[in-house]
Automatic annotation (TrEMBL):
Record's protein name: EamA family transporter
Lipid bilayer topology: Multi-pass membrane protein
Family membership noted in the UniProt record: Belongs to the EamA transporter family.
Organism: Janibacter indicus
Localization: Cell membrane
Amino acid sequence: MLAGVVSVQFGGALAATLVPQIGAAGSVVLRLLIATALLLLFARPRWRGHRPRDWATVGCFGLALGLMNFAFYASLGHLPIGVAVTIEFIGPLTLAAVLSRRPRDLLAVAAAGVGVVLISQALSLPFADLERTGIVLALLAGACWAAYIVFSGRTGAAFPQLEGLALAMVVATAVVLPFGIWDVSVHGTSAWDGTVLLKGLGIAVLSSVLPYSLELLALRRLTPAVFGILLSLEPAVAALAGLLVLGQRLDPIQLTGMALVVLASFLVLGLGASRRRQPDLPA
């Protein structure tokens, strides 16, 4: 899972250079199209022999995955990225809180939540200055992220290896494709050159194929509650990458946030991260 967190951050850095060229919807569609093609090529999923219940699980997984990606990218057009990330994290942290079984679990959720807010510096802007459209989109992304965690675990249990993920990516691509077509109709295709396609390939591998595959495998071993809290490592890794790669300094408040996120991770790992996820899944 930690490898997936690191992969996402490198993919996010690359995506930041692509969105200005082809827009948010275009970036999401290009990334998912390439990622879906790669997963279908390597996973070679079976299209027959699955139960209706399993298809429903894959459908919900793909729907959550597609909407999560589109809603978050769209929110960045209305909110600073730190604020959008913080609002989006309400989803997985709420899921972790709902599935918590002990006071120590709730302490870890609280520490992770406060840590994410401090790292992202989301409190630096007054709430009144934030666009309501962006807030709604970020909340939608967070809700879809929580659904993604639940259905990723169920898909991993119902399908062997990466079969379920490949099928879900087909659904996710179908969900966002209309937005991508509209985006191209507005902005045109002049920006879609070889460089854009190469960036799209890199983003697809780093932000979709690797992390989604690793997360699906992780959810076969971790409970959704533990997984949701460990996701709070993402902004901490992003801030650390900014320091090491871009020379972006971290202030004491951000360092405090990183310490809280690390504390939350140690708390949940100490609770037994190797427990199977089934007992914590909602019916």
